[in-house]
Structures are given as C-alpha cells and as structure tokens.
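Tokens in:
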C-alpha cells in the first residue's frame, strides 16, 4: 500500500482495531435474519422448540429491547441497517421500491441495469447502486482472504446483507432456482447447478403443508385455524384458510414455482443451500474469519397471509427450528461450534391481524383500498380543476412526488398542492396524517415517530408528501397483515448472539439495530468506519 492510500484509509476508518472480546476465536459468523419475525413470533412458541432455535436461545446473550430507528420498516431498509450500521434514508434506501424522479418509474432498492442474471432466468440484482460499505466489506478490508456469502429467498435480502464485495449473493428467482448476477460472478459454481436440479421446485405441485405437531398443541398456542382476516391460498374453493395447504388442482408450473415462496419449503431450501455453501466453499477453515448471511424470507409471506398468531405462523417457526438444527449440526462437523458466532434477528416486526386485535378488545383496523383509491383519484381531479393539469404530481405507494420545476413554470405554490392532497387523503379512515418532507426533516428526537421517519428520508430522492397510517392500522386489504410503520410493533425485533459454551443471559436496555454490524466488527477485531450511526454493544465486549 502506498503512502497516499494508507492516509486515505486512515481517514475512512477508526485509528485502532475494534476491541476483541472473549469470543476472539471466531472463524465463522452465521447471521440469520428471519423476515418479519417479531419478538412475539420467536418467544410465543419457545416451550416447543427442540432444535436450532432451542440451541440458539440456550447459548445466547439475548437483547429484548432492540429497535430499528427508521420509519419505513421494510425488508430492503432493514437488511441495509443490519449490514451497514447506518440508517437507510440518508443513504438513499427509501424502501424495497420507490419512484425515481429522473427515470420516471419505480425502481428496486437492489436495481442493477448493468449486470445480467447468471445461469437462469430472472432479474439481475446487486449492491451496485449503493455507496455505503458493509460488515462484509470491512472484514475483507482487514482480511482480504476472508469469504463473505449471502443467501436468501428475496433478492434485496441477499444483496443488502452481502454488501459491495460479497463473494456471492444468491436469491430465489421465482422460477424454481437460486440465482445471482454477473455483478458477482460470470459462471455459476457447479455445486449451485447441482443444488438447483435437486431442488426441483415444480415437483412440489402435489405436496401439502401439514402441521408438525398434533392439532390440540396449536390450539393452545395460537388462535383458531379458521380466522377471518387470514388469506386463503386456494382460489378454486370456498374461503377456508385452514390446514392442510397446497396448490390448486389446475395450478400451472409457473403458479407452483412462484407460490413455492410462500411455504416453509422455501426456508428449508434456503437453509439447505447455506449448508452446501459451508461445505463446498470451506467456510471457517482458516484463521481468516468468514461470514455467511442467511435470509429466511418465507416467514414474511406466511405472516402477511395468516398473521403472527396463526397455526401457519406457529408451524413455520417449528419447522425452521428443525431446519436450523440440521444446519448447526453441519457447521459443528465442518468447523466446530466453538469457532462459530451465530446471530439471530429480523429485518422488521409486524402487526397481528386487525380482526384478531379487535376480538381481543384491542385497537386496530384496515385501511380500505377502494376508499384510499377514491381519495387519490379525487386529488388528481381537483388538481385538474384548479390548474388544468395534474402531470406535475405522481403518487407512488404512500408518497406523492412533485415536479417542482414544472410547478414553478406554472406558478403553482407547493403549499396549495399540499393542502389539496391533505384535505382529500386525510379523510380516509385509518390515515393519521399526510406529512411534508419539511415537517419530517424538522423533527426532533422527542417525537419518536417523526424522528424515525427522518431516518427513512433522503433530501432529494424522497417524496414531497408521505401518508402516515394510524397506529394499529394496516394497508393490507381485504385480508392479511403488514408492517412498514414507525411504530414500536414494526421496529421491535429479537436479537441473539449465540455461541457454544455461552450461558444464556438477557439484556433489557434499549439497543439500536444499527449497533449490530459494529458489534460484530469489534468482536472480530476489525476496524469500524467513522461516521456510521451504530456503536458496538458494550455487553458483547466484556472480557
């Protein structure tokens, strides 16, 4: 390294390595992110765990008051936080998707128009458009021979966790295979080709998702199986959201490989692929520590459909418990558990079905899609009436984007447009407020909701107006549940650091999720970049 490069590196990184703890023998970090796993979803069924969850909990330092501090709690931003130690908005990660003002269409947070999907059909995704470095990048800067792999059902989970310099990020292509893009490699490894052939997702056409335990156990821990508000995967029969669950008799091959994502089989496939990566890539086999990120994405689809208190969500967790046991056993044989740090968390929380909350006497409701659609249509009718045009405003999801240049040409005041939109949209039942970007950026730490929204906003890329729903209300309609708000039930997730020989302990003080990446960095003895939002968790640095 020449003198100039060394000086530049010193500017970017702290001057001294992270302080290593008693866990300084780590050769492999396996980082699990279970999509939409609220603390309730993990803890409610703990007495029934006998496999991987059981081992992770029994050997954990568990943090019970861990929160994301951004307002739009979704998969892409959450996984960015986990890997980078930074809030998503200032780094341009507005959500899973957002409206691009320059391109004039919606883009993915892991959009990559340069690369190509490798080996199969699907979308090419990567970390290409994101500037922030991540834990894997910090590791490779310190140990160039370290390996960083990421595998998940969702492309945004795999790419966000893997970071800029991952050896490989693998994700499901919704066509029956795990794929990657040419951003990482040009040719698929033979072990992945072999794995996809074995997966044979289309063969699940005649498979049925059934309970792992007797029916009466589910009745003790979950709400009744048939519960109004649950989605029903069968479309050719009367509404009946109950076990067993499979595919319609007339489902096409496309329907099967697409629908495969919403079953526990998806998470089993992801964990099985993680086992293959450990074995085939020799993770944890030398003194250069490696990282394997594993994103379990099917839970998100399952909880969205049935809610976290359902038989289906309960069974999904029980099955993951069993799948994780197999992975931990594989890692024990290949690496030795004494050399492995496991991290278990989630990208965001979630809310129970509104119908379940109402039955329990708790507040909650659904924002009517037709009512919201009508209100937004009224906005554009009023804009046409007042200004003879409405093409200077775009609605995308919960945001309204202004073409400020065109508004200046037309001598249209922003505040007047704000008022028109607010008066129409705030009439919708379940909508709390319509907030301007300026209101969000002028927020202070005492207002938790606005402060979190500020951490989801970018001064240029974000919408000019944002729709904030009422607490305990969901935009899912007419069935299912959701997330995406700045409220505690969406920001609160479990966090476990687990290792062989570690006694189970619990920490209740509040921890920010941006602290996870710098904590792992400190435990590995690698430098933590200056300027990130997170700091190492002190309880994980004790000698």
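Residues out:
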């Amino acid at each position: 390294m020449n003198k100039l490069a060394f000086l530049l590196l010193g500017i970017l990184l702290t001057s001294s390595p992270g302080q290593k703890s008693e866990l300084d023998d780590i050769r492999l970090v396996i980082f699990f992110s279970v999509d939409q796993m609220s603390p309730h979803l993990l803890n409610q069924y703990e007495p029934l765990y006998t496999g991987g969850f059981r081992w992770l909990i029994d050997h954990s330092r568990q943090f019970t008051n861990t929160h994301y501090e951004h307002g739009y709690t979704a998969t892409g931003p959450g996984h960015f936080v986990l890997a980078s130690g930074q809030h998503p908005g200032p780094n341009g990660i507005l959500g899973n998707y957002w409206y691009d003002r320059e391109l004039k269409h919606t883009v993915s947070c892991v959009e990559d128009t340069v690369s190509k999907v490798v080996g199969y059909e699907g979308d090419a995704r990567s970390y290409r458009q994101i500037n922030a470095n991540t834990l894997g990048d910090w590791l490779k800067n310190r140990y160039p021979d370290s390996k960083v792999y990421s595998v998940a059902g969702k492309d945004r989970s795999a790419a966000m966790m893997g970071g800029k310099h991952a050896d490989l990020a693998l994700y499901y292509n919704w066509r029956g295979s795990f794929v990657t893009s040419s951003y990482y490699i040009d040719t698929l490894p033979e072990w992945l080709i072999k794995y996809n052939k074995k997966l044979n997702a289309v063969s699940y056409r005649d498979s049925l998702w059934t309970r792992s335990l007797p029916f009466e156990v589910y009745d003790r821990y979950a709400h009744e199986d048939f519960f109004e508000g649950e989605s029903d995967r069968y479309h050719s029969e009367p509404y009946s959201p109950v076990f067993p669950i499979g595919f319609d008799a007339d489902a096409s091959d496309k329907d099967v490989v697409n629908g495969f994502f919403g079953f526990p089989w998806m998470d089993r496939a992801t964990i099985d692929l993680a086992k293959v990566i450990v074995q085939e890539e020799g993770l944890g086999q030398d003194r250069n520590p490696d990282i394997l990120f594993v994103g379990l994405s099917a839970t998100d689809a399952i909880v969205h459909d049935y809610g976290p208190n359902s038989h289906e969500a309960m069974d999904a967790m029980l099955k993951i418990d069993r799948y994780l046991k197999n992975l931990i056993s594989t890692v024990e044989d290949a690496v030795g558990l004494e050399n492995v740090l496991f991290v278990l968390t989630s990208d965001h929380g979630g809310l129970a079905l509104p119908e379940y909350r109402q039955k329990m006497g708790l507040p909650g409701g659904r924002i009517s899609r037709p009512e919201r659609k009508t209100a937004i249509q009224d906005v554009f009718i009023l804009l046409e009436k007042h200004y003879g045009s409405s093409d200077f405003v775009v609605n995308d999801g919960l945001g309204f984007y202004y073409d400020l240049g065109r508004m200046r040409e037309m001598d249209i005041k922003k505040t007047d447009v704000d008022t028109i939109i607010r008066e129409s949209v705030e009439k919708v039942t379940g909508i709390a407020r319509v907030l301007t970007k300026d209101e969000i950026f002028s927020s202070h730490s005492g207002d938790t909701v606005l402060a979190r929204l500020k951490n989801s906003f970018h001064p240029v890329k974000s919408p000019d107006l944002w729709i904030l729903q009422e607490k305990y209300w969901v935009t899912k309609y007419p069935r299912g549940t959701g997330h995406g708000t700045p409220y505690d039930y969406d920001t609160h997730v479990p966090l476990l650091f687990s290792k062989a020989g570690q006694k189970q302990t619990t920490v209740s003080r509040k921890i920010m999720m941006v602290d996870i990446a710098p904590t792992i960095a400190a435990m590995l003895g690698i430098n933590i970049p200056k300027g990130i939002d997170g700091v190492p968790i002190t309880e994980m640095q004790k000698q």
